[in-house]
Amino acid sequence: MIIVMKNGASAEEIEEVVKHIKIWGAQAHVDRGEVQTVIGIIGDKAEILRKPWTSFAGVEKALEVSDPFKKASRKFHPSDTTIDIEGVKIGGGHTCVIAGPCSVDTEEYVVTTAKAVKAAGAKMLRGGAFKPRTSPYTFQGSGEDGLKILQTAKQETGLPIVTEVMSIDQIDLVYKYADAIQIGARNAQNFNLLKAVGKMNKPVILKNGVATTAKEHLMSAEYVMSEGLNDVILCLRGTRSYETAFRNALDVALIPYLQELSHLPVIVDSSHSTGARAYVSSVAYAGMAAGADGLILEVHPNPCEALSDGEQALLPRDFDFLMKKLDGLKAWSQKEWNRFDKAAK
Amino acid sequence: MIIVMKNGASAEEIEEVVKHIKIWGAQAHVDRGEVQTVIGIIGDKAEILRKPWTSFAGVEKALEVSDPFKKASRKFHPSDTTIDIEGVKIGGGHTCVIAGPCSVDTEEYVVTTAKAVKAAGAKMLRGGAFKPRTSPYTFQGSGEDGLKILQTAKQETGLPIVTEVMSIDQIDLVYKYADAIQIGARNAQNFNLLKAVGKMNKPVILKNGVATTAKEHLMSAEYVMSEGLNDVILCLRGTRSYETAFRNALDVALIPYLQELSHLPVIVDSSHSTGARAYVSSVAYAGMAAGADGLILEVHPNPCEALSDGEQALLPRDFDFLMKKLDGLKAWSQKEWNRFDKAAK
Amino acid sequence: MIIVMKNGASAEEIEEVVKHIKIWGAQAHVDRGEVQTVIGIIGDKAEILRKPWTSFAGVEKALEVSDPFKKASRKFHPSDTTIDIEGVKIGGGHTCVIAGPCSVDTEEYVVTTAKAVKAAGAKMLRGGAFKPRTSPYTFQGSGEDGLKILQTAKQETGLPIVTEVMSIDQIDLVYKYADAIQIGARNAQNFNLLKAVGKMNKPVILKNGVATTAKEHLMSAEYVMSEGLNDVILCLRGTRSYETAFRNALDVALIPYLQELSHLPVIVDSSHSTGARAYVSSVAYAGMAAGADGLILEVHPNPCEALSDGEQALLPRDFDFLMKKLDGLKAWSQKEWNRFDKAAK
Amino acid sequence: MIIVMKNGASAEEIEEVVKHIKIWGAQAHVDRGEVQTVIGIIGDKAEILRKPWTSFAGVEKALEVSDPFKKASRKFHPSDTTIDIEGVKIGGGHTCVIAGPCSVDTEEYVVTTAKAVKAAGAKMLRGGAFKPRTSPYTFQGSGEDGLKILQTAKQETGLPIVTEVMSIDQIDLVYKYADAIQIGARNAQNFNLLKAVGKMNKPVILKNGVATTAKEHLMSAEYVMSEGLNDVILCLRGTRSYETAFRNALDVALIPYLQELSHLPVIVDSSHSTGARAYVSSVAYAGMAAGADGLILEVHPNPCEALSDGEQALLPRDFDFLMKKLDGLKAWSQKEWNRFDKAAK
């Protein structure tokens, strides 16, 4: 961290900052420029970096030099993490497409969907039994009944199950049925929930928050990992924008960026980013082209009757169309690029 | 709700939409224009409005006509809600300034702060015992010890206490000590938590989410109120922006806007919107000038030692300066404007 | 357009709106609901749609039903526009990669770059002789000297030239040298300039504005086209976001979206969207995968010496790497998807 | 400027950066930390700061320490600038309210408005003869006829005139009639136009761009001032946001912030920020409460007939209501706060 003092900061003000850097256990390196003095803090204890440096007299600003995440960082864990969910692998070169209804509704619909997405090539089944909805007057999820329906679908197809947990008190119940746990955008900074799932032993698919940055997404992963769990999958579902054409804006540049900063797998949820069936597949395809480790998509045999988000659900035949198209795709590999770049120097 | 059909939608497509409107319990009014057909849905059951209309063949878009909140809406509750917190009133013409440290640290600091803000005119004490922090490696709050310190400060000053609850499992503990409950920005769409505090009987100060709109803020209030609690205070703490000068952007136009849409009191948190001590007071002042029902501000006697957010804490003397300045302020009243506007017609 | 009246709007207020719809040359269709009255405006003269409907007493809101662009719209021009720039085709199934330095600096650099990008497969050369820079103290472009250097590069390679025009008074000069004209993000809503280039007879590459929506981007194209020019290429260079990892955020969903709304070609500028060499190629690749009609990229043989934006320039060898990779790419086609979707119904 | 090298950057990489700092005329100060090396650039020539530092091998990031604006900065011009427009003063303790129609339409409307706003206390008249409109099919302004109407209104009332110039070729014409020139949001980064008005000798009211930051706003002022003109008034009209309640979001914290960074006057345009008559006055009032140096507002005697933006126009009686209310307002003064803050230390 670098502390930039104001023009004309006094010797006493500089001394006060230096004194506190030492009190708080780090070293200070003072650089007296012609116009402004700059103080480097050597030593990276997180607590020191978070001190209210701009509260000190004479300080103009404090600039962070290093990233605040450790366990999620590739710096401290250079090789890719491969996650195994009931034999299905993701990350480290393994890609995985997850598909299923937004909400669990009837057993018939869910089993039909599970069979269809399996036939098309999906390796896991998604479906929500607890639903975060903006309005309290809309369908809030089917609870344990829904989880049982997912279990049936798993028995019929062999597909492992991903389902969302919305609060700590749902953990016991959801973990009885789920093979991997989804944390949704609205809970992406529900830090108590993150810590709670970090204490459990099932892989977590962690969506970015409604308006989080890539580094905040990684900090949320760090919350989970700081409790001991290493199996975190980063899921991009877009962030809020002033563009009205789509539900959210998803910048595919985040895929290679997160893959460089972190060793964790990165998947794309283009159902929630676009919010519109007509564009779900094109963005999914572009995401895989950009090198994503997988997809998570909503599929429903009868979207008009879906209990939530029907407007963004693919029909089974649409999903099949996408999967076939993906067959012929040669994806970008940021690693290949990095190797090329290094070799060329 | 209005369904706009595509250019050249077929009679069958129109019929299918109309049929479903009826199946789902409402009436349809079809308006065949020269270019496009428009179908009005008469009947306002929330479930119908949430159906995936754009999944139907031939539908171009679905436009909402009415707002989805009811209990929070002034349409259904025209007169202002006045909330009483241990004798301190807010809303319906009563203004209230709440102040105190961001995090509860030592008893000495908290009691000193409580006495100082009371002397300056604050009517309630704020302080966090549980803290949502972006990094798992920073101070996470002092828990029940912190709540006891707040209790001591209340005994010494008589100021009722506002403190944050971050998850359902903290409710029992926090409600033993708090007089009003704060829901923070990162939990503003933690719908399970909203419902849980809505079942309790203490007033809730509900911050807007990191990137919510005014209507989403009201929908979060609706979640609390749908469980039976009426005492909700809307708190504006700014939303995420590309402007880097401040932590968040706070548009004061939201104050009269929310007061027109809703009967609930609206207060301003300029500590979190600006994130910088130098601007906390100017925005607080402007917020009250715009007609806010109150303020919630962070005050700390030694910000350099504060365990969190010291850079945005006012010193007790700063807070006193602001309160004296507020004494002479003649605030805008949107009601007075509305009366003028109506009379002039 | 649909006018939604307030709850309890009076018969006189409704009558006043209807009267004005007629005065202004359209027909009104009044729909008296149980709660709210809705008035449809039949007739789509742009001027009528822009009237200040919410200024009328009793009006709650005015909802637009149809899009305000005509010449740029696929509704009125169903087949793709193919643009021919000195024999190089773009749109309607023809893809085109444009590359070159951000700013024109020395003849040696520009000619070297031109030869290199041609060898790798680029079909046009880009380079700025006039530069919009946020600071008046940075390099502002080389003017006519720069245009002559581009001409030399064209003579040496045969590549047609794309260069930016920043103001009306530069038009005469720039049109002497350029084969296609670029309008930059900061001028995307400089409507006088748009009309001026619309009166000329060279193709225009029109970037989206710093924070425009897709429909505003099309409205800017409409400005150009309303003056008679049909050859407009829409260029996506990302929009401003709170994400700090990149210079701008580019949502690839905009590619199929614009292609559906409009018949104009859509290209991607991932140099300006990412602002960082390490990610330019991955986003370019994903853009082409999403079905873009082309790319416009910055390439410089010595980015450390580039007069502007060196941090986002590809080296010639990087560009070659990308072009080889693109060779094997099977792109998404939104048209193919639409045909599949129609056939399946 | 500070260059942060990557973990494990080689000695050669560090040397290469240092070498270029010297070649480009500044001094380097190398700070070898345990983990990362940091290089300070001493000397503040703008060109050096803009070099593509991250293009150098081994560089992780480049952090700016000082602001890139000079003439607009209070650092180099500590005392307030007071601008005199035909005897009307603004800045340095002088406040000024500017009002008038959005577009100039009929002489009768404009003169009526001018008389009404003068009677209510406005000191200048605004009105657009050239209009930037998102659609080419809406009213584009009345041109010189409009300017003559403004001249008539000036003759009748004595109010100096503010009107917008949209492109360089309008300058001669507009400067014949205007007393101060407005640069609109869509031209806020039209750098050629900024330089052109900077060469003229009339005060400029410079709006922030559609999505510019405060510092970018100051950089636009710097463009004008770099050509020699000192009389620039910063005008806040809000920036684009995902909030749908208003046309733009205006954070009043920008008022004291800009006043601290710059010596230029800061005024508020709440007509364009809110976009809705019902909230124009409350935000104008809050802006003045936050210490703004003035207002610029749209007033029209018959908004339903206004040629543009009628929905945000105040009626003359509304404007009178606001002005009377402003009479009793004791505004915040950031200077008073700064004096208090300094004295207390």
Polypeptide structure, described:
Four copies of one chain form a homotetramer. The first copy, chain A, is α/β, with parallel strands linked by helices. Chain A has two domains: 2-63, Phospho-2-dehydro-3-deoxyheptonate aldolase, domain 1 (Alpha-Beta Plaits, 2-Layer Sandwich); 74-336, Aldolase class I (TIM Barrel, Alpha-Beta Barrel). In chain A, 35% of the residues lie in helices and 17% in strands. The first copy, chain A, contains twelve helices and 14 strands. Chain A has helices spanning 11-23, 46-49, 107-120, 144-157, 171-177, 191-198, 214-225, 254-261, 270-274, 277-289, 316-327, 334-344; strands at 2-5, 27-32, 37-42, 59-63, 83-85, 88-90, 96-100, 124-126, 161-164, 180-183, 204-207, 232-236, 266-268, 294-298. In chain A, the strands form three sheets. An eight-stranded parallel beta barrel of chain A has the order 7-8-9-10-11-12-13-14, surrounded by seven helices. In chain A, helix 3 (107-120) packs parallel to helix 4, helix 3 runs parallel beside helix 11 (316-327) and helix 6 packs across helix 7 (214-225). The first copy, chain A, is elongated and about 75 Å long. The model of chain A has no long low-confidence stretch (mean pLDDT 92). At the B-D interface, helix 8, helix 9, helix 10, helix 11 and helix 12 of B face helix 8, helix 9, helix 10, helix 11 and helix 12 of D.
